């Protein structure tokens, strides 16, 4: 699991007197132990730079550029109060974008982008996390890609999500959720943990500044994590590799509704290579292994 970058092995020390947990992270020589380069390990174990450093914010293909421009223009109309309700026309409209957004949003995503009915497909899940493969949300996205072949799949997260806040509280032991809630929060905990670890190392910040940084990092990392899950899908990977589909990220400001587009995952190719390696490794079953010369 670790070698194919499907599993992270993380160490921690529990203080029996205070109840605090010190997270140590992964083994510093894990690549040497596994006998291969592991770019996603480096990505997960190094400090994260915010979304300003991402590339391809406006799309690569002409179809993707036009689809993103349509959404940017619509969002501008929404933010400036120039959007209006659009009645269904009954026409057969081919969608240009699939949007994976949060169920907790207070505004319909179609209104957020002021698009005509049918121009976008919206899949709403708590925390904007696609979840596990072969589950309903994930399968719905794969079906939409195969059925309509839109040029853009957009992961949309909220700048102040109550799901992120709950995950951070649970991480700190301030909140003990019921089992059904933990199922949702467990996906977000991956990003919350990394955000807390990174922010707490910044000794120059005030307590308030540290909390703001934790929320920002957790939000962005959660968006990236959802993209990483989506790239595990063979349907998504094949379309991305062929250039037919682009997987983009965006963050909605909870106060204004303004959406900022940030482009593709900065480690997209490494994620897909790791996914292909997993698929090759487990092609004959979960207990299968590859010869060392095939690890690359």
TrEMBL record:
It comes from Emiliania huxleyi (Coccolithophore). Pfam families: Pro_CA. PANTHER family: CARBONIC ANHYDRASE. Reversible hydration of carbon dioxide. It is an enzyme of class 4 (lyase). Keywords: Lyase, Metal-binding, Zinc. GO terms for molecular function: carbonate dehydratase activity; zinc ion binding. It catalyses: hydrogencarbonate + H(+) = CO2 + H2O. InterPro entries: Carbonic_anhydrase (IPR001765), Carbonic_anhydrase_sf (IPR036874). Transmembrane segments: none annotated. This is Carbonic anhydrase. Belongs to the beta-class carbonic anhydrase family. Its EC number is 4.2.1.1. Its cofactor is Zn(2+).
């Amino acid at each position: 699991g670790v070698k194919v970058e499907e599993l992270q092995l993380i160490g921690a020390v529990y203080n029996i007197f205070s109840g605090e947990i010190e997270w140590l992270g992964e083994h510093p020589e894990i690549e040497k132990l596994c006998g291969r380069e592991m770019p996603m390990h480096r990505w997960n174990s190094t400090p994260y730079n915010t979304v300003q450093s991402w590339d391809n914010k406006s799309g690569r293909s002409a179809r993707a550029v036009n689809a993103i421009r349509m959404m940017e223009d619509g969002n501008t109309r929404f933010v400036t109060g120039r959007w209006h309700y659009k009645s269904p026309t009954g026409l057969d409209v081919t969608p240009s974008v699939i949007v994976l957004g949060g169920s907790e949003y207070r505004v319909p995503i179609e209104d957020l982008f002021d698009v005509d009915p049918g121009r976008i497909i919206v899949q709403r899940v708590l925390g904007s996390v696609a979840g596990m493969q072969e589950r309903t949300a994930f399968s719905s996205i794969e079906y939409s890609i195969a059925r309509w072949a839109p040029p853009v799949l957009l992961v949309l997260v909220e700048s102040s999500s109550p799901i992120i806040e709950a995950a951070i509280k649970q991480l700190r032991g301030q909140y003990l959720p019921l089992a059904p809630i933990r199922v949702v929060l467990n996906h977000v905990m991956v990003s919350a943990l990394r955000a807390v670890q990174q922010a707490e190392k910044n000794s120059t910040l005030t307590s308030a500044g540290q909390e703001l940084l934790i929320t920002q990092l957790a939000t962005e990392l959660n968006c990236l994590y959802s993209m990483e899950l989506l790239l595990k899908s063979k349907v998504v990977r094949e379309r991305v590799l062929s250039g037919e589909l682009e997987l983009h990220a965006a963050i909605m400001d909870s106060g204004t509704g303004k959406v900022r587009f940030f482009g593709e995952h900065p480690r997209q190719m490494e994620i897909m290579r790791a996914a292909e390696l997993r698929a090759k490794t487990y092609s004959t079953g979960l207990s299968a292994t590859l010869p060392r010369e095939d690890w690359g």
